[in-house]
Amino acid sequence: MAAVEMALITSVFAVAMMNAVEVGRYAYILMETEQATQVGAQAALVACDAQHVPATQACPSLTSAVTTAVQGTSLGSAVSLNGAIAEGYYCLNASNALVYASDVNSKPANCAAFGNSGLSPALYLQVKTRYTYAPMFRGMTIAQSFPTAIQKTAWMRML
Questions:
Q1: How far, in whole angstroms, is CA 66 from its chain's centroid?
Q2: CB 156, CB 55: distance < 8 Å
Q3: Among 7, 14, 29, which Cα is nearest to 134's?
């Protein structure tokens, strides 16, 4: 009888431990993907200084610098750029939210169209990354209900 009780308790404990490990691992991967995205955006600023903006047009090393930085985290090549690096002029609206003003080829004179005529549009670069999550314990934990595609976005003000 004691062996049966021990087997039941051990099974419940093992499933609880697998769930705890899987939830912790998922949270870690979310944070690492966010960190990789931020590092990629910062690498764009380092690789493409004020003399090389708009970076998507005037900085030939942009994509390689961002990719190297993104994959320099503990996730390695499992995290990748999700689409092209985007760049454009943005303004703050009356609610202090960042809104798209124009592409890099036509900088607006000011942000009057967005309720802030005293502000000048700023050049922002957007980096998006993607990581595909796979649970360690398939079918045994709640991790199968987690989204498998982890996508993050980071912004960097270039000017």
A1: 12
A2: no
A3: 29
Report residue 111: phi and psi, to 5°. -105, 30
Q: What number of other Cβ atoms are within 10 A of residue 47's Cβ?
A: 19
What angle (nearest 5°) sits at the alpha carbon of residue 102, between those of residues 123 and 96? 65
Distance separating alpha carbons of residues 55 and 62, to the nearest angstrom: 7
Per-residue pLDDT of the chain (159 residues; tens, 9 = 90+): 888 889 899 988 998 999 999 999 999 999 999 999 999 999 999 999 888 899 999 999 999 999 999 999 999 999 999 999 999 999 999 888 999 999 999 999 999 999 888 899 999 999 999 999 999 988 888 988 999 999 999 999 998
For residues 70 and 36, is the Cβ–Cβ distance under 8 A?
Answer: yes
Phi, psi dihedrals of residue 36, rounded to the nearest 5°: -60, -40
Residue 15 amino acid letter: V
Give the closest residue to 89 by CA, choosing from 59, 115, 121: 121
Adjacent-strand bridge partners of 37: none
SS3 105: coil
Distances, alpha carbon 15 to alpha carbons 3, 34, 137, 140, 148, in Å: 18, 29, 10, 7, 21
